Amino acid sequence: MHSPHHSSTSSSSSRELSALGWDETFAAMFAEHADAGLVPARIVRVDRGLCDTLTASGPVRADSSALSGADREHMVCTGDWAALRPGSQPLLVALLPRRTAITRASSDRTSHQQVLAANVDTVVIAVSLAAPVNAGRIERLLALVFDSGARPVIVLTKADLTEHPGADEAVVAALAPGVDILTTSATTGTGLDRLAETVTGTTVLLGPSGAGKSSLANALLGREHMGTNEVRAVDGKGRHTTVHRELLALPAGGVLIDTPGLRGIGVQDVADGVGQVFAEIEAYARNCTFGDCEHRSEPGCAVQDAIVTGELDLARLDRYRKLMRESQWAATRGVARESGKRSKTVKAITRDLRATYRFRERQR
């Protein structure tokens, strides 16, 4: 029977963890580790075989080398929940399954994925109004977010540096139907209170360098935690203020993950996410005469009809095609890679069996 002291300590620990995003689902997944005397820890920052983590009893720097043998898609990542063995040399023993994961195609153009953040509830896509709106970048980021299962929020930053914030917001709204869009200015304070009310749970900031992510992070944290850099007026670009992914506790509960600016945003097997971003194109496509219509010159193409009548923008259709091609190419490469892995495994097993048979023959 548990003592009253143990019970109050346990409930206190649960409150500490729930502020970091812990809930009954994670607790159920962790049950077997709890029986082994391990404790839950949320990954704050990953650093060459070591991780900064947060636990119910406070920060712990732990050895994560036991989990470093995984492939890139399953390596320890900021936002992960892990099972930690406490002691004089704390050790991460296992990762809990991820509820969501923000991933992009690796920059080396292979079929591998790079996980940017794990167990994310809300993604803030930062878009600077001090530079021309980049429709393709917004659509790509939305596809990543939708495919992950997280909720996107587009935050237009630096509203004090544009003469027509309302017009810019209309342009972005046309790219992201149904997505919450906030207009903010760190200089004047416009929209920052509403931003704090909009984000929930685990929030990650995504966007290019110079988009104002660090200013948004400082506004949400209520303090100057992130350094901010000047942005070049010629192209609206800035240096990477944030150089690593880091998880930070928010004052009112929940956590924030800040990420370095993304130069390239490769997508991989995100057809479902692309379908959500370009929902109107897929809606038109359902009325095409042919099920395999490519929306080019086929008779009875409802998508081309929408372009002719001005209901659909040709440039948006072109971006949709490009994202779908890229996603399908990556998906095909991924299947080929897994098939290759299985083939190598089968070959290795066959080799071992042959060697065993030859050894037995020699023993006779």
Report on the structure:
There is one protein chain. The protein folds into 3 domains: 4-95, Nucleic acid-binding proteins (OB fold (Dihydrolipoamide Acetyltransferase, E2P)); 101-258, P-loop containing nucleotide triphosphate hydrolases (Rossmann fold); 271-338, Orthogonal Bundle (Ribonucleotide Reductase Protein R1, domain 1). It has helices at residues 4-18, 24-35, 135-148, 165-175, 192-198, 213-221, 271-277, 279-285, 302-308, 314-363, and strands spanning 39-47, 50-55, 58-63, 81-85, 91-95, 101-105, 113-118, 122-128, 151-157, 180-183, 202-206, 246-249, 255-258. It has 364 residues and is α/β, with parallel strands linked by helices. Strands 10-9-8-11-13-12 form a 6-stranded mixed β-sheet, with helices on both faces. GTP binds at residues 157-160, 207-215. Pfam families: RsgA_GTPase.
* CATH C-level category of the largest domain: Alpha Beta
Order of helices and strands: HHEEEEEEEEHEHEHEHEEHHHH
What is the count of DSSP helices, taking H or I runs of 4+ residues? 10
Helical fraction equals 25-40%
* CATH architectural designation of the largest domain: 3-Layer(aba) Sandwich
Counted beta strands:
13
The fraction of residues assigned to DSSP E strands is 15-25%
Order the strands across the largest sheet as they lie in space.
Answer: 10-9-8-11-13-12
So, the CATH homologous superfamily of the largest domain?
A: P-loop containing nucleotide triphosphate hydrolases
What is the domain total for the residues? Answer: 3
Largest pleated sheet: 6 strands, mixed
Arithmetic mean pLDDT: 83
Over the alpha carbons, how many angstroms does the gyration radius reach? 24 Å
Distance between the termini: 63 Å
Described by the principal axes of the CA atoms, the overall outline is globular
